[in-house]
Design goal:
Elements lengths: L20 H8 L3 E5 L2 E4 L1 H20 L3 E2 L5 E3 H5 L3 H5 L5 E3 L5 E4 L4 H11 L8 E10 L14 E11 L2 H21 L4 E5 L9 E8 L5 E6 L5 E3 L24 E4 L6 H8 L7 E8 L2 E8 L6 H7 L5 E3 L2 H6 L17 E4 L9 E7 L2 E6 L9 E2 L18 E16 L1 H5 L3 E3 L5 E3 L1 E8 H11 L1 E2 L2 E2 L10 E5 L9 H15 L4 E4 L5 H11 L3 E5 L1 H5 L2 E6 L5 E5 L3 H6 L2
Parallel strand pairs: 3-7, 15-17, 17-20, 27-28, 27-29
Antiparallel strand pairs: 1-2, 4-6, 5-6, 7-8, 8-24, 9-10, 10-21, 11-12, 11-21, 13-19, 14-15, 14-16, 18-19, 21-24, 22-23, 25-26, 29-30, 30-31
Helix pairs in contact: 1-11, 2-6, 2-11
This protein binds one RNA strand of 78 nucleotides through strand 14, helix 9, helix 13 and helix 14.
RNA sequence: CGGGAUGUGGCGCAGUUUGGUUAGCGCGCAGCGUUCGGGACGCUGAGGCCCCGGGUUCAAAUCCCGGCAUCCCGACCA
């Protein structure tokens, strides 16, 4: 491809609205242009990268037994109503109406469509399993689109769905898909971890996220350096030890003492006021359990993990009080709640609450706290449960080693769905004995456009992008240097010949034939980031060589003019 | 949804506080010339509903009101 013809204009300045490196460099390099918030045009260079990711995904999905199909982006809302997800997704869905005012949405995912599609044609155990996937645009009207491709409202996703007779059969495909994901991300050059996850809107039991490790990621995940434990911070647990446990009320505990703490509804403020540490205060969080009021107790320096709280009350559902809830429950003094609040229907506490003999707690009265509250004497706990959000240094639930926390970009997510969708949408099969059962499903998402951004986050430097060979839009960037040294057209002739030879050898070549000064060409070559740059100029030709630079390492060497193809094809 | 900010040629910005001729600068773009191995220089030129709508005024990019868009922060931790 001749750069003089390529539809790509590089920008000298950073775009003002690009906050992260991937967004900034993809726009500067002419890979991407914004059309609206969270919506982008993929220019020729960018689209080539996206297609390369697509090909890798397609290859590995096919190896894993997937069959590619294409589902509609515009989907009837009525179908979503059958699973209740029109409500569950709420304003996250782009909605539209046709001329008859029938409701539709732009597909944020496709469980409903695929499940009804499979159910329409398959009804026997002999048909199963089947594993179907598509690579298609998805639409989510995010609360806050940001970071360019990392949280976009339109994004390219590979979504796969598998259907099985039972859980055991699902597990096989699930494992095969996990392996395929690992291969895909490895081929794309990403440093990633597979972490345990909560399933969120999709629903279901077991799920794992694939996180590309990156500082700009929006998700925290916990991992253990000593074993293979890794989990999304919401799903993470820790080893509960009985070390430091105090049972019953100590005989020598001082009496409770009420203290005035005006206008100090926060832990830190109260601790500072009393000259104590936050972990000497007991945090009492109100929550709703199907209409009942619960209290969750954790040390003042820890936070309640809403997901852990929800697990603790299963099969019921817990939701921490919001300001609105406090407004409805005037009897609960926000900021001054204590563990002995009489209006609570249940009291849960994290085992860490057993580790201190005496606590500062809220006095259940605005502007007052209480010192020397003792477990077993002044308050009691109904249920002990893991409630706190894991922090670095907590013991690994598998091996007890100190856990670490990192940030990541969620590039993939695999789920074992069970029969939720099959039941709601009537996807049943008949077994050998003539009995009917709902199909057991798995689903597997992978964000291709997000992979592109994650790769750029990992592969760039001050000068621009440095694509891994597997994703680069072109294999080689040929820079021809014109100027007064090239009065005879010798450089152009040599460059065109080399480009032709490289292309004949199967390499894709970006050929900078523009009438521009060398500095401009070098800067653009670094910005665009092809893995190998070949510089062809009069100086080199005089010695029958061209200059090679490896973009990622900056390494340079010289290649004999008649050995260029051999040098670049390793032959 | 709450808070903050911004909206001026393709890109990055100044001008707005204190209203006043033809609205500026850098990059980019076009032409000519000199240059030519890490973002050259000179001359000439094209390109602007100053986000949109209403209002105030003799006069609005500038003041007022209302929209829209974009970006950032936050959106339960008591």
């Amino acid at each position: 491809m001749r750069m003089s013809k390529l539809f790509a204009r590089t920008l000298r300045d950073d775009p003002a609205d690009a906050e992260v490196d991937s967004h900034r460099l993809l726009v500067r390099g002419g890979y991407l242009r914004k059309v609206a918030s969270g919506i982008y045009s993929w220019l020729p260079l960018g689209y080539r990268v996206l297609r390369r990711v697509e090909e890798i995904v397609r290859e590995e999905m096919d190896v894993a037994g997937g069959q590619e199909l294409l589902l509609p982006i515009v989907q009837p809302l009525e179908l979503w109503a059958r699973t209740g997800r029109d409500v569950a997704y709420g304003p996250l869905m782009f909605r539209l109406e046709d001329r008859k005012e029938t409701g539709f949405c732009l597909s944020p995912t496709a469980e409903e469509v695929i499940t009804t599609t499979v159910a329409a044609d398959y009804s026997s155990y002999r048909d199963l399993p089947v594993n179907l996937y598509q690579i298609n645009w998805k639409y989510r009207d995010e609360l806050r689109p940001r970071f360019g491709l990392l949280r976009a409202r339109e994004f390219l996703m590979k979504d796969a769905y598998s259907f099985h007779v039972d859980q055991a059969d699902l597990a096989k495909t699930y494992d095969a898909m996990r392996e395929a994901y690992a291969k895909i991300f490895t081929r794309c050059g990403l440093v990633f971890r597979a972490v345990k996850a909560q399933s969120g809107e999709i629903g279901g039991d077991t799920s794992q996220e694939f996180m590309a490790v990156a500082g700009v990621g929006e998700d925290d995940f916990v991992w253990c350096a000593a074993c293979d434990y890794a989990a999304n911070v919401e799903a993470a647990t820790r080893q509960i030890s009985d070390a430091g446990r105090v049972d019953g009320a100590p005989a020598d505990a001082p009496e409770r003492e009420r203290v005035h703490t005006p206008d100090l509804p926060g832990i830190d403020g109260v601790a500072a006021h009393l000259g104590m540490q936050p972990n000497e205060l007991l945090k009492t969080m109100a929550f709703d359990v199907d209409g009942e009021v619960g209290l969750a107790l954790v040390p003042g320096d820890r936070e309640v993990n809403p997901t852990a709280l929800d697990r603790a009350v299963a099969p019921r559902h817990a939701r921490l009080f919001t300001d609105d809830d406090f407004a409805e429950h005037r009897e609960l003094p926000k900021g001054y709640l204590g563990p002995d609040f009489t209006g609570a229907d249940l009291v849960l506490a994290d085992p860490l609450v057993r580790e201190l003999r005496s606590w500062v707690t809220g006095a259940n009265e605005t502007d007052y706290h209480v010192k020397h509250s003792v477990l077993g004497r002044d308050f009691n706990v109904g249920t002990w449960a893991d409630l706190v959000t894991v922090v670095p240094g907590d013991p690994c639930p598998n091996c007890g080693a100190p856990l670490k926390i990192d940030r990541g970009i969620e590039v993939g997510h695999v789920f074992q769905l069970g029969t939720k969708y099959a039941e709601a949408l009537d996807a049943r099969y008949t077994d050998e004995g003539g009995e009917q059962h709902p199909m057991v499903m798995g689903c597997y998402g992978l964000g291709l456009s997000r992979v592109v951004a994650a790769v750029v986050e990992e592969y760039h430097d001050d000068n621009g992008i440095a694509w891994p060979a597997a994703l680069a839009p072109y294999d080689v960037h040929v820079v021809e240097l014109l100027g007064k040294g090239d009065t005879t057209g010798e450089v152009t002739a040599a460059a065109s010949r080399i480009v032709g030879e490289l292309e004949a050898a199967g390499l894709s070549v970006l050929y900078d034939d523009r009438d521009a000064r060398p500095g401009v060409k070098f800067a653009d070559a670094d910005l665009l980031g092809m893995p190998v740059q070949l510089t062809i100029g009069a100086k080199g030709l005089a010695r029958s060589i061209v200059e090679r630079k490896v973009r990622a390492s900056g390494e340079r060497d010289e290649v004999a003019l008649d050995g260029v193809v051999a040098a670049l094809t390793g032959g």
